[in-house]
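C-alpha cells please, single chain.
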Amino acid sequence: MGENIFYRIYEWYVMRGLNPDKMPKHIAIIMDGNRRYSRIQGNIDVVKGHEIGVDTLEKVLDWSIELGIEIITAYAFSTENFNRTKHEVDGLMNLFVVNFKRLVDHEKIHKNEVRVKVVGRTELLPDEVREAIEDAEKATAKYTKRCLNLAIGYDGRLEIIDSFKKIIKDVQDGKITVDDVDEDLVSQNLYTEGIDDPNLIIRTSGEERLSGFLLWQSSYSELYFCETLWPELRKVDFVRAIRSYQERERRFGV
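Here you go.
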C-alpha cells in the first residue's frame, strides 16, 4: 500500500514537470522485452508475454490521449520475426487477428477518433490477419484526430527499397523525371506516406539500437532508451521519456 502511494506521488511529481506546449506530436515505440519478460516470470509461455505486451500498448494509447499526443507508431513485428519458432509466430498471428477484430468496435478507439493503420509488407501475412487489419482500417478510416500505426511485416531498409522501386517505375512510365526525385518524393512513397516523422522514439528493455525501425523517418528524431521491459512499462516511465524529450535542445542537421 505504501509503495503504491509512493509511486502515485512520484508519478504526480514527474507529470507536473511536463510542458503541454512542448508535447511531441508523434511518438514511435520499439516494444522490446516481451520474450525476456516471459523467461523472468518463470518461463511462462512466450505468447503470454506478447499478450501482456498488447495490454501495455493499450495503456500507452490511453496515456497518449490524456497527454494530447496525436500519433503513436509501434514496432509490432519485423520481417526477421518470421524466423522465430512456429509456435511463437503462430501465436503472434493469432494475437493480431483477435486484437484487430477488437479494434473494429473498440469503444475507446471510436470515442477518441483514433485511425488505425498498418505499415509494412502486409502481403507476407496470413490471409486472416490481412482481413482483420483491413476491417480495423476501414472502421477507423474517417478519423483524423489521432492515429495508431502498427509496423507489422516491417523492415526499414526494405521500406526504402520499395519506395525507390515505385519512384523508378514512375520515371520509366514518364509520370515524373529524375529531376523530380527529392526527399519529399521518397517520403511520399514510404509505407508511412502522409504521416509526420516521429519527434521521439522510445525503445524499452535497455537495448540501444533502432533495429531497422523507421530508418528514413528517424533522421531528426530524439531517441530515448528505457531499461524497463515492455510488459512492465509504467506511466511514469513513459512520462520520463517525454520529459527527457522536452529538456533537449533540438538541432536539425548537426
